[in-house]
Amino acid sequence: MSLAYVLVCRLFELVVLLGRGERSKELEMLVLRHELSILRRQVKRPQFTPHDRMFLAALSRVLPRRSWHRFIVTPETLLRWHRQLVARHWTYPHRRPGRPPIDSEVRELILRLARENSGWGYVRIVGELRKLGIDVSATLVRNLLKAAGVPPAPQRGQLDWCSFLRAQAATTLACDFLTVDSVLLRRLYVLVFICIGSRRIEYVACTSSPDGAWMLQQARNLFMNLDDHNERPRLLIHDRDAKFSRAFDAIFNDDGIRVIRTPVRAPNANAHIERWVGSARRECLDRILIFNRRQLERVLKIYIRHYNERRPHRALDLQAPDPSRRASTHGEPTPTAIRRRDLLGGLIHEYEATAA
Questions:
Q1: CA distance 213 to 217
Q2: Which of 29, 185, 332, 333 allows an S-S link to 337, with CB 3.0 to 4.6 Å?
Q3: Structural domain tally of the chain?
Q4: Inside any domain, residue 95
Q5: Virtual CA dihedral for 82, 83, 88, 94, nearest 10 degrees?
Q6: DSSP state of 98
Q7: Who contacts 187 (Cβ-Cβ below 8 Å, separation ≥6)?
Q8: Same domain, 172 and 319
């Protein structure tokens, strides 16, 4: 469009020039030639834009060769510009040789698989992508990981302390007793088991007399509850309370679970269950009157359901321990789409998003 505009302007100038007298034309040409000679003395190498080159190359095909010395460039330059103009017109769009670049989403998926699975090599990642309907080569995966600074599988497979402790915590249980005094000053005992890795409360039982037979029965009940969740821990941590007898530990040892007793007067050695006891007291038990064991069981059942399914935890990136019931983080509901649900007579509030 710019070249067409320039040509139209020059055409109008030519019409005006044809309508003028011969003497005025000669005088104007003399002035223009003198100005051109002045510019040639001052400018060593003039800078031409692509539009200037196209215009001069087009005029070079119209003017006779004997008039080419009027141009401020050499005839060889004009011919070279014209050849480039013709070549550019008949040249197809340039495309880089080789395979087309990989999509950004596929690139991020490859990096994610490599970071989340430290033992996967290039071929293993290619196989996983092929299952997802993405066909790439092992060489492409290798080059992409190398460019992103991700080491190969043998180096990525080196276990650090954080990963080691996280793997151990996923198969470790901790247990302890919690005491609650009723309105009639009757002491009730609460036995709690928590999974350190998921922060999930696995089992809770209440009694007024935690004797040996009752403790053995709770151990059996715990195993049945773990079987329902398809879980099998490797370690059990508890303190040196006399209620944790050798017969109680023997049940776990027979099932392949190693029992670890914490040092004397060292509550920090079993910090996860101690933290839960503190949370249960602050958020629930210290703010309600307990009359009997049945009421305590009902209160703890409601609180533990809230703790496992709704309560956010800083150790879990502000998510609930139970992964099957974690609230979805997709979308941003408006304040009018939030519903509050009261538990324990309004002692605990739960909020959930509803359809607008």
A1: 6
A2: 333
A3: 3
A4: no
A5: -150
A6: S
A7: 179, 180, 181, 208
A8: yes
